[in-house]
Structure formats: structure tokens, C-alpha cells
Write a structure and sequence with these properties.
Elements (H helix, E strand, L loop, with lengths): L2 H67 L1 H13 L7 H11 L18 H20 L3 E6 L4 E4 L19 H11 L7 E2 L3 E3 L5 E3 L1 E8 L2 E9 L2 H8 L10 E5 L25 H7 L4 E6 L5 E11 L2 E10 H52 L15 H30 L3 H33 L16 H140 L4 H120 L7 H9 L48 H13 L5 H13 L1
Antiparallel strand pairs: 1-2, 1-7, 3-6, 4-5, 6-7, 8-11, 9-10, 10-11
Helix pairs in contact: 1-8, 2-4, 8-9, 11-12, 11-13, 11-15, 12-14, 14-15
Length: 833
Amino acid sequence: MRISTKLPLAATLFALVILSASVAIGLVQQSRVLDEQVYQKLEATADGRRNETRRFLEAIRLDARGTAADMMTQQALFGITGAWPKLGDDPATELHKRYIDENPNPIGEKYNLESAKKDSYDRAHRQGHVTFLKHLKAQGYYDIFLIDADGNIVYTVMKERDFGTNLISGPYKDTGLAQVFRKVIASDDPDAFANSDFEAYAPSNGAPAAFVAVPIIMNERKLGVLAYQLPNDQLNTIFANTRGLGETGETLLVDKAGMLVSDSVRTPDSDSLKVAINAPLLADTLSGQDVNGNIEGYRGITSYAAAVPLDFGDVRWSVVALIGEEEVMAQLVSAGLKSAGIGAFLVLIGSLVGFVFSRSFTRPISELVSSMGQLADGNTDIDLKGVDRSDEIGDMVRSVAVFRQAEIDKRELEAENESRRSATESERHQREAERAAAQAELTEAIEVLGTGLQRLANGDLTGTIRKPLAGNLDRLRLDFNASLERLSGTVSAVHGNVAEINRKSGTVSSATADLSHRTEQQAAALVETSTAIRQIMEAIRHSSERAENASRLAREARANSDRSGEIVGGAIDAMQRIENASSEISKIINVIDEIAFQTNLLALNAGVEAARAGEAGKGFAVVAQEVRELAQRSATAAKDIKALITKSGEEVSSGVGLVRETGTVLSSIAGQVVQIGDHIHSIASTSKQQSASLNEINAAVARMENVTQQNARAAEQTNAEMSGLTRDAEMLSSLVGQFTLEANASTVQNRFADQRDTGFNRPVQPAAPSQPAPSAAKPASRSFLKPKVAPAEAGNRAVASPARSLMDKISIGLGAKLTQAKDNKSDGEWEEF
């Protein structure tokens, strides 16, 4: 690193170290002061929330005592307890039925029902409910309770499931409400007051609830207890105030177990009695001390906190004010950044001053360095400043002057050496001329061979080199001409063999194509035959299934007809029994008629005797008259019943006749159903036999179809392979046709014809040089020949059509012959094959 850089950097580092030390000391002092300020602010905030909450709770205590002492409250409790026995043995169930279950208002608005309008309890309820509901809405309480001396909740405003229950033996005997009731009812102090801590209260859907209670005394007699359920929303409103606590600070009300009583405004969910704070400072608060410190883990952060105790009645809570440590540290960091900014500005000023001073010191050195660089580049006309200086820089300049003089002396020596070197240059030019001549001969030989090779690369096999080359290079020309002649003969022989391969592969391809076409026709005919057989089998199968279903239905119909006959017989017997019963009833009616007649006669006699008795028999005469009228009505009713039974007997006789006729018709239907079932069974048996025959025929056709399909695939594969061979031969012919041969290439071809082994039985004649092979052949992939397939001969006779014999079998199985037109069509197709 240069001195011009080191000096300013040293000055900057020196200023930076001093500044960093001062900033660090300032930050430590500022952090200590900031911590004290934060704790003081938190303590003041916690104390303010405590005083505000205490005033709110004391107002509830005064309101409860004033309400309990009010004459309206006393009269309401007196009237309700007086009507309490009207509710029966289970008052809670009755009250739930009246004011909850049958209450038309929705849940949470059950208080809108003033009276169920059933008895004196409802009238007493209505008299007090209007006043209590108005008081609840004005003060913001959650609920107001009236509890008699026996522990029965005889009245509530909100009408929840605790209404009507007993706090001594009922389901809510362990709640805070039962706790404050027992304390107040057991105290002899007329100013007794009890309150409970917050806990989950089941009738209020598990919401946190705390209760206060005072006695209701009338004429120095304790009637019961007035209780309030404290309003959580008003407490939450008090502790929702976060003024002066930044973005993370808040105040909380915490019970003795460390559970939050108030809901946190910094979280979206309800935290009351769900979130706990585990910190040692809460234990000190519950002992009555004001403490501060850190809380870790709450809301996932570390917080500065101050806690103070809050006493109300029998309960002690902790009021906690806290703020996030990161937010406090952010203030400290902001102050530190400001200090660092000011220090950086001072460091910059110090660096500028050091830079100016160092430049005045290092400028002569830089000029000397520049002069030395020019001297190193060969410039000896440099101007060296400071030669007359008496300091170290002057010594350095004078040393550079010595190096400049040495460079001048060196250049003079180099000029002398250059004059000696020019004398040997002419000899070097002569040797280079000789090498150029030899290089020209080699270049000519390369160009001639290159031209011949270029013609060979283009397929011209006539490009022999006629012009001899110089010296030993002519041996290359002779070897090239011999190789070209041998290659020309080979290509001519290959051209002739390719033509013969093309002719033979074309013949085989035509034969295989013909075979493939006829095999496809045979396969198509078999497919049509198989399809027709399957359709016929499907129709026979459906007919057989329908016949079997019809036979089954006929059997069921026969069974049902037999059962119907039995039912008709039973109905006839029942009708007969009804007819006999009607006769018996007629006899009983006659007896009743006779009894009525005798009763009427006796009543008449009694009336006569009563008339004879005079004044003493008047009462008996009235009774006799009533008996006579009753006997007459009995006789009239007996006559009407007898007429109805007579008519019923006639109708029963008519029904018996109709049922007998029904039995006769059902018997006739059963016989006919039996005959139908026999015919359907015969049809089903015949259909099964036909289906079995067609299954055998279909299996035979399927086997023939498989064989035909295999033959067709073999023919198609052979045809495809022959087509591939033809394309390969055409491509080879095209490739060979690209070569240009000399007129005497046939002599060379004959010389190599005896040495080749191409797999053919006889030699082929090469194509004439003047007739080049076609060059338009398309490229194709290489393929190998499959086993040869002999073409069809003209003398082969036609084979009898298997499709026709199959159709004859089908006709025999179905009991009918196919049409003559279809037979002719089938013959034509198979005779062609």
C-alpha cells in the first residue's frame, strides 16, 4: 500500500477508534438511563390502571348495597319467594320450560320475555323484571340474581341454565356464585359483602365470570341474597388503553394462578383464563409488593414489566404493565445511530484534513515515481525535480539521475552492435531462396494430388494423373492411379449385382402382395361370418332367457292361483262364521227387546203404585217415569240393531256367493297357467339346444379366423420386408450410380467377378458405363430377407369354401336355410381365394 494511502487511512482509523470508544460509553450510559425511564413509566401506568379498576369495583360494591336496600328489590324477592311453591316439586325444570325452552326469543335475548302468564310466580316475575332489566342495561352488568335463603336462584335477568337451580345441592354448588352466596348467607353482618375470582362459568357457555353478593334484609329479617355477575367487557375496556406504551406495550389483570383475567389487545384471540404468565415477579406482587423486572415467553417476546397488587374484597389480583424489549432496544439503537452518524461526520472531516496533509508530503514522491516509470519505458529526457533538496527525497532524485545516465550509455552500445549484425543479413537471404524453390515443388505435387482426390470425392473414377511429378514425388502419382483403377472395377461389379437384386426383389414383392391381399379378403369374410353367428347367438340367448323367465313366472302364477284358491276358501268359511254370528246376535237382540218390554211394564206398574201412594210416592213416580223412558229407548235401539244385523246378514250372503264364483274362476286360470308353463318350458329347452350348436360353430369359426389372421400377418410382414429389400437395393444402386467409370472398367470387373461371394446362384452382368444408375432413389432402413414364399402357380385348383359349409350348419341348427342370394355371394368370395 502506498504511503499516500497509508497516511490518510491511519488518520481515519485513529479518529474512528476515538469516536467508537466515546459512542460506546455514551450508549452504555444512555441504556442505563433508558431502562430507568421505562420502568418508571411502566410503574406509573400499572398504578393508574389499578386505581381506575379499584374505583370501578368500588362503584359496583356501592351499587349492590344500594340495590339490595331498595324497597322494590325487597318486595320483588318477597313476592317471588311467596309464589315459589306454585312451581311444584321441580322448580328448575318448570322455569326452564317457561322462560327458556318455550321462550320465543333467541338465545342471548331470553330476557325480553316479561311473563309466562301461568300463575302467581309469573305475575311476581313481571313486577320486578322490568326494573332489574333497566338497571342491568344502565350499569352494564352481565346478570343480576335474586337468591332465597335456601339457596334457590329464584330470579335472573339473562335466564341461563342456572335459573331455578339450588346453590347448596344443585349442579352449580361449586361455582363462584355459590361461594359468595354461602359467605353472605352465613354472615350476621348486615353490611356483609363477598366477591369471587374470575373462573369459567358453565351456564354462560364457559365464559370467565366473577360474582359479588350482598344480603337483602327486610324488617331486620334476611330474605336472601342479591348477586351481580361482573361485566368482563368493561374490565377489558379499562385494560385496553395502551397510550404511552408504544407498539408492543399493554396492561393486564392477572389472577393468583398467573392466568390473564383481562383480554389482551395485542392478540386476535380471546386470552381471558386461557393464557398464563410465568414470571417470578408475580409471586412478589401477590405478597403485596410493587415490583418490576422482565417477563419472558408471553406473546413469544421478552418484555420489560412492572406489577402492582390490586385488592378487592376477598380477592387479590396483579396489575401488570409491560412493553417489548425489542421496542425499547429500538429506541436505544436509534439513539446510537444518531451518535454514530455525528461521529462519522467528524471522522470524515478528520480524514479530509489528514488527506490534505499527506498529499503535501507525498506529492514529490509521486512525481519521482512517475519519472522512474518513464525512465523504465525508455524515456531518458525526463525532468528530475528536487535534485538540489537536502532531505531523503533529494537523495532519491539523485539516485534516479544515476540510473538515467546508465540507460544512455546502454543505448550507445546497442547502436554499435546493430552495424555488425547487418553484414550477415545477405547470406541469410540466399539460404531462404533455396528453401523456397523446394517448397514450390512440394506445393505443386500437393495441388495435383488434391485435385485428383477432390474428383474422387465427387464420384469421378476417371480422374487419373497424367502429368509426372518432380523427383521422388512421382511415386505418389503412380500409386494413386492404380488405386483409382481397382476402385472403378469394384464399383462397376457392384452396380451389376444391384440391378439383379432389384429385379428379383420386385418379383418376390409382387407375389407376397398378391398373397397378402387374398389373405385379407379371407380374413374379412371370416370376420363377417363370425359377427353374424355372434348376433344370432345373442338373439337365441335373449330368447332363451325370456323363455326361462316366462316359465318361472308361469310357475309363480300357478302357485299364486293355488294360494288364492285357499284364501277364497278361507274367506267363504269366514263369511259363514259371520253369518252364524249374525244369527246369534239377532237372538240376543230379541232377548234385549223382551227385557225392555218387561222393564217398561214394571215401570208402568211402579207409576201406578206411586200414584196410589199420593204425596209420599211422588219421588218414586219420577224414578219410575225415568226407568220407563230408558226402557223405551232400549227397545228402540234394539229394533235398530236388529234391522242392521239383518241387512248385514244379507250382504254377507251376497259376498259368500261372489267369493265362491271367484274361486271357480281362479281354478280355471290355474289350469291354463299350467298349460302355458309347459309350452314355455319346451321353447326354453329347444333354445338351449340351438345355443349349444351355435357355440360349437362359433368356436370353429374363431379358430379359422385366428389362423387366417396369422397368415395375413405373415404375408404382410413378408411383403414389408421385401419392400424394404427393394428400397435398400435401389438406394445402393443410387449410391453406386454416383461414380463415373471409364470405358475399360468391364475388364477389371471380370477380373474380380470370380473372387466375390454375393449369395446368388449365378453371376450378373455389370451395367454399361454409359448408362448411369438412377440417382433419385429414396433412402430406406436396412432389412433382412425372411424365408422365401413361392408365388401361386396357375395350375392350383380352387378349394371348397369353408364359409359355405359353416352357413349350412347354422341353417340346420336354426331349422331354416339361408337365402340363395347370400349363398351366391359367399361362393364368389371364397372361389376367388
